[in-house]
Amino acid sequence: MTIVRLAIDLVLQTGGSMRGAAAGLRLIAARLGLDVAMPSSSAVRSWLLRLGCHALTCALPSGVWVWLVDHTVQIGACKLLVIVGCLLNEASLGERPLRQGDLHLVQLSLMEHSTKEAVDLELERAVLRTGVPREIASDQGTDLNGGVQLFQQQHAGVAHVHDLAHQAANVLKQRWGKDDRWSALLARLAQAGAKLRQTRAAHLVGPTVRPKARFMNVGPTLRFAGRVLKLLDTPTPDARTEEHYGWLRDYREALTSWTSEHRVAEAALRHVRTHGVGRDTATALATAWSQVEWTPGARDVAARLRTAVRTEGAQAQPGEALVGSTEVLESTFGTLKRLEGSYAGDGFTGLSLALGAILGDRSEEQVREALEAVPKKEAEGWVKRLLGTTVQMFRRAFVGSAKT
What is each CA distance from 267 to 261, 262, 264, 282, in whole angstroms? Predict the structure, then answer.
């Protein structure tokens, strides 16, 4: 069982692939002269699925729960509704942000048509595992909001907190989205990067701007522009820097404003990740913003975020803190896509069930008990019931028909 746990940890904790973990273990055994059978990549995959299946079917601790709810979308018409959670008193609010190890997989559901009624139905099913939660945290998706509202009509006292990262991104989008200077800056940075990418000055290529959720990921672009400006401000700036980025001086004032606005948002997010939201959060942000360089734009962003946390925090009882960020769930989706590798772009795979293995913190004995409780066929059956015929299956059939 030690080897099983080691193989799983190599995949989940070191960023290795299933094939890489299996090959690494075989290499270690050979170099150390160990006469021990090492797993294949398919065995590692099977263990992950069985752990995930166990997480989805085992008894969960009783108490006051918080759920984090979101959809993950890859390709095709379907969305995977994911509900994870933990006991609210074990959320470590006030000490550190939530981690994947703090969470349990509560519910998975593949939804071809995600309506508020469908979401409400899945939330009701999740109640069978944890009881009615104290809080549901989600982004501002229309179908999720509608489903939670229906759920709240049947269950008084359930707070619905919107993820502050999405709210902050929306604030920046409202301020920058229609700003011609911002769009021009991104266009010119992309042009400079295209010219430099295949040259000896490739180190001057800026970060790639993500097309999706780009206002949640503007930090790298702002930091890069700030570093380039510092290079340009030296007594003798590098010729290549001057040639390709000299125009950036024209954006100095705008960059100062954008950077201060972003720092306001980041400081608020850091506070809420760690402390959650409560009735005193709006006041506490004053300390979080003590190091911010205030510009008119930064004051506007601060006012909007203060209103947001005041609204969300009003749902808390006196002295209570609620989870205000679902970013740990987003990071879990990222881990899943890493596991799926190149197949992540081809729709949901059977590894979707491995979400249950990604979450939680298991001892070696708990891994043993989970694998003994869930045979391979049971996990494979769950995959078939969960996903049905996947995009990959259709693609294999399509490719196979073309060969005949």
Answer: 10, 9, 5, 12
